[in-house]
Amino acid sequence: MKKRTLRVKKDAPSRVDKVTGTSRRRGLAAGNTRSSPLDYFCKMMMGYCDQQMHSAPPEMLEDLPLAISSKISMSDEELVHLSVRDLNRQLKASGLTRSEIVKMKQRRRTLKNRGYAASCRNKRLEQKDDLEGERAIVIQEISRLQEENKALEGEVDDLRSKYSTLLEYARKNGVPLPEDLNTNF
Q1: How far apart are CA 133 and CA 21, in angstroms?
Q2: What gap in Å lies between CA 129 and CA 138, rounded to an integer?
Q3: What is the DSSP string of the chain?
Q4: What is the 3-state secondary structure (H, E, C) of 145-175?
Q5: Are 68 and 79 a contacting pair, CB within 8 Å?
Q6: Residue among 94, 3, 7 at smallest CA distance from 53
Q7: pLDDT digit string (tens) for 105-163?
Q8: Which residues form a coiled coil (predicted)?
Q9: Of 12, 131, 142, 143, whose CB count within 10 A is highest?
């Protein structure tokens, strides 16, 4: 059985290059002729092993989803929720070309990624709301404790003042005091 090898145009930017905004040409000019393992993995997962996709003009690639939708009637939701095995069966049975099948799989991956991103955003917003609620509760608790602390400080100052007044009265009138009460604060 012959092994399939990945052939990629050297000038074509990879999916990672498009996302990061860097160009592979820059790396090639610096003497780096091999693609990174991440590039290889992305190309394998996204089906870039099909040479026809690289040779197709850009206009055809953009019109491809319309051509696909006329051959197979499947909503985006069905595409996302379909198992891989069932999707492969339906795509093979629909008579789509290899490049159209790759495009459908890319569409499915894009839709799934959008779903994951939306889920992550929602989760992050929920966590933010929860943390803001907890923060508000903590701020209220801190304010309450500060007020309680001020009230206790006032109470302590009041008791200290009364104690000093009593000690002074006892000394002036010669009232005998125990040893431990003779000290001032």
Answers
A1: 39
A2: 14
A3: -PPP-----SSSPPHHHHHHT--HHHHHHTT--SPPHHHHHHHHHHTTT-HHHHHS-HHHHHHHHHHHHHH----HHHHHHS-HHHHHHHHHHTT--HHHHHHHHHHHHHHHHHHHHHHHHHHHHHHHHHHHHHHHHHHHHHHHHHHHHHHHHHHHHHHHHHHHHHHHHHHHTT----GGGS---
A4: HHHHHHHHHHHHHHHHHHHHHHHHHHHHCCC
A5: no
A6: 7
A7: 999 999 999 999 999 999 999 999 999 999 999 999 999 999 999 999 999 999 999 99
A8: 128-162
A9: 12
Q: What is the 3-state secondary structure (H, E, C) of 119-135?
A: HHHHHHHHHHHHHHHHH
- Closest alpha carbon to 86 in 53, 108, 115, 117: 108
Cβ–Cβ < 8 Å for 14, 35: yes
- The CA dihedral of 144, 149, 154, 155, to the nearest 10 degrees, is 100
Give the integer Cα–Cα distance in Å for 70 and 50.
22
Q: pLDDT tens digit string along 5-29? A: 544 444 555 544 444 444 444 444 4
Whole-number Å distance between alpha carbons of 96 and 64: 11
C-alpha 12 chain-centroid distance: 29
Say if CB 6 and CB 43 are below 8 A apart: yes
